[in-house]
Specification:
Elements (H helix, E strand, L loop, with lengths): L2 H9 L4 E3 L4 E9 L20 E2 L4 E9 L2 E8 L3 E2 L1 H15 L6 E5 L7 E2 L9 H20 L2 E11 L9 E3 L16 E2 L7 E4 L6 E9 L4 E8 L11 E2 L2 H13 L10 E6 L22 H18 L9 E12 L5 H12 L10 H12 L4 E11 L2 E5 L3 E2 L1 H10 L4 E5 L8 E2 L2 H6 L16 H17 L6
Parallel strand pairs: 3-15, 5-7, 6-8, 14-16, 19-21, 20-22
Antiparallel strand pairs: 1-17, 2-4, 2-9, 4-5, 9-13, 10-11, 10-12, 13-14, 17-18, 18-19
Helix pairs in contact: 2-3, 4-5, 6-7, 8-10
């Protein structure tokens, strides 16, 4: 069977395990740390090649099996990964483990001190590293699959409302500076810009979720944490780091030990819905937390310690249902019109020409990139049910407001949202956020979906959630 045939065969596949069957789980990691010279370039932040390693990058994998249903979850310490690389990894996983492509959830954490495994870069993508990533994801999955053993799960949530803040600020009309295209009238200032702030432009999701997996004898197997903070930052240029996601995982791994020789406990931290959420808020922290790297260590360790406190209280049990639902939406691309293309070419053709914004030339280049995009493309969406827990997966940088709406309307007791999953489709502002403007809405390879994309994606994820809640429903 060809790779394309495998993808098409498994794309719309949906399966359910139901009843009193034993749950089997396995976990493993694989190293993703790049060598020196691999590009960390993005068009806006953290440019340049990797010069060294502050802390390693990992693929962290969990395989679940109940009856004939098998599911894979792999969280990767990378900034973003395009669908081409994830699809290559999924094909390798299918060939080595038999786990259907549609049953694989692969996501990036969004650390900004790691390669962007996508074609959003100021340099050509490092093809060798892209291949390496796909192979290492498959290796982590294969070893997790080999480690399958009877297991039980527990779920806990707790709120940390003081750690996160919306990075988009709604401003008084007429006070926001021009955008990169020289246009006035926007109401939001975000990553860049000035304005008279009225209030945050959106809410935060304060909920921290943890999915605990233990061997049948109660010894720890894996923990999947999930929180809506964009990244922590505080890097030194050129040094690779997994950010707070890595510190969280390593802290758990230093405290929890498996009793299975050759099968160590695996800690995992995933990014929830943080497209409009900044770094951790500047709360008072110990004196030793000042300086590069220290804040991410502090917050990663803080979240891990709270996880340990909550997981000690958990009752673990065998889930009655393991189910997967998937679909794809064909969405429009916000391609530039003829006038915008001409503006971009005129600006780029004359390096001495005054630009309205310090990022105008970057967005002029992005305009020409968007011109080459297809008019529409498919966005993969996924829901995985593990008993009373549902995981949603979308390839976008999803805003917290969208995540909150999904949780509020989900039929499940616990809904855990994962962004940057199964590909990369840019920021996902809703129609109101588009109307207000701001960095996350400016047309670019990092923000290119149609204005109604958020509503359509949220509606489809809710449909999949309802299907998964009634697993007998045929897709």
């Amino acid at each position: 069977m060809t790779r394309l045939a495998i993808l098409l065969t498994t794309l719309m596949f949906s399966a359910t395990a139901r009843g009193e069957e034993t749950l089997f789980a396995g976990a493993a990691t694989a190293d993703l740390t790049p060598g020196e010279g691999v590009s960390l370039d993005g068009p806006i932040s953290k440019p340049g090649p990797a010069l060294g390693v502050h802390d390693p990058l990992k693929s962290r994998a969990i395989v679940l099996r109940q009856a004939d249903t098998k599911v894979l979850i792999v969280i990767n310490d990378l900034c973003m990964v395009d669908r081409e690389v994830f699809d290559a990894a999924k094909t390798l996983v299918f060939e080595t483990t038999g786990i259907p492509v549609a049953h694989q959830l692969l996501a990036a954490t969004h650390t900004h001190a790691a390669p962007r495994v996508s074609r959003i870069s100021t340099r050509p993508p490092d093809e060798q590293y892209r291949t390496f990533v796909a192979e290492r994801i498959a290796d982590a999955a294969a070893r997790a699959n080999e480690n399958l053993a009877p297991a039980k799960i527990g779920i806990a949530t707790f709120e940390l409302p003081n750690l996160a803040a919306c990075r988009r600020s709604l401003c008084k009309p007429g006070t926001v500076a021009v955008n990169p295209y020289g246009e006035r009238g926007e109401r939001v200032k975000s990553v860049a810009g000035k304005g008279e702030v009225l209030r945050p432009a959106g809410p935060v999701d304060p909920e921290f979720s943890l999915l605990s997996i233990r061997h049948i004898d109660g010894s720890p197997l894996a923990v999947l944490g999930n929180f809506s903070v964009h990244y922590c930052g505080g890097y030194e240029r050129g040094l690779v780091s997994a950010d707070y996601f890595g510190y969280y995982a390593r802290r758990l791994e230093s405290r929890l030990k498996s009793n299975r020789p050759g099968q160590p406990f695996v800690g995992i931290m995933s990014n929830a819905t943080s497209g409009d959420i900044g770094s951790f808020r500047r709360i008072e922290t110990p004196k030793q937390s000042s300086g590069a790297w220290s804040r991410m260590e502090y917050f990663g360790s803080f979240l891990a310690d709270r996880t340990l406190q909550e997981s000690d209280k958990l009752q673990h049990s065998t889930p009655q249902v393991l189910a997967v639902r998937t679909s794809e939406l064909l969405l429009k691309v916000r391609k530039p019109d003829r006038a915008r293309v001409q503006w971009a070419r005129t600006l780029l053709d004359d390096p001495k020409r005054d630009a309205p914004h310090r990022w105008s030339r970057i967005y002029a280049q992005e305009t020409l990139h968007l011109k080459k995009f297809p008019d529409r493309y498919a966005v993969p969406l996924q829901v995985i049910r593990i008993g009373d827990v549902a995981l949603t997966a979308a390839p976008c940088e999803v805003f917290a407001e969208t995540g909150l709406k999904l949780k509020a309307e989900s039929p499940f007791e616990h809904t855990v949202n994962l962004e940057l999953a199964n590909g990369y489709s840019g920021y996902l502002p809703d129609r109101q956020q588009h109307a207000w403007g701001g960095y996350e809405t400016w047309p670019a390879r990092s923000s290119h979906l149609e204005v109604d994309a958020e509503q359509k994606i949220r509606k489809e994820l809710l449909r999949l959630l309802k299907q998964a809640y009634q697993p007998g429903t045929v897709q």
